[in-house]
Amino acid sequence: MRRILRLLLLFILFYNYSYSQNNNEIINLSENEAKESDFKNKLYTGGNFGVQFGTITLIDISPLIGYNFTDRFSAGTGLTYQYYKDSNYDFKINVFGGRVFLRYFVFDNIFFHSELEYLRYNYNVNYSAWGVDKVDITNFLIGGGYRQWLGGNLYANLIILWNLNESEYSLYNNPIIRIGINAGL
What we know:
Shape: elongated
Strand content: over 45%
Mean pLDDT: 82
Number of helices: 2
Strand order of the largest sheet: 1-2-3-4-5-6-7-8
Low-confidence stretches: 7-25
Structural class: alpha+beta
Radius of gyration: 26 Å
CATH architecture of the largest domain: Beta Barrel
């Protein structure tokens, strides 16, 4: 019985000693390491991926990276690639672009979203001397969304946006619905 008590006491002392070393290592982090860790904890990445097949085929790949300035306010940037094909009209385009956005959480999981998006695509036209026209579109999108936590730093977003300067060259009609996944780094 004495041996068991001695082993138990030795285990408790060893455990406390190893625990205190761990705390000292955490306390002794340099300021640069702490700032770097804080910066990384505020970054998030993710984006949207969409596919539609049929008479109209659409593939959308839109990665993003963002930074949480506060618990409620974040900003970010992203890239966009879309492939659009309409079999009825033998029409195909590749769309490239980018965007910057702002998000403000009014409640824990409900946010306002504003975005400035630039898209560029080429399309063939019969009446053009060169056979190809370039289209540059700048969209100003506003709306809101809902964030659903999936576990850890992973969450899904459902965002509904309206294009305030929709034109005949816009690739999508109002409202614009996006579903995406984001993850904190």
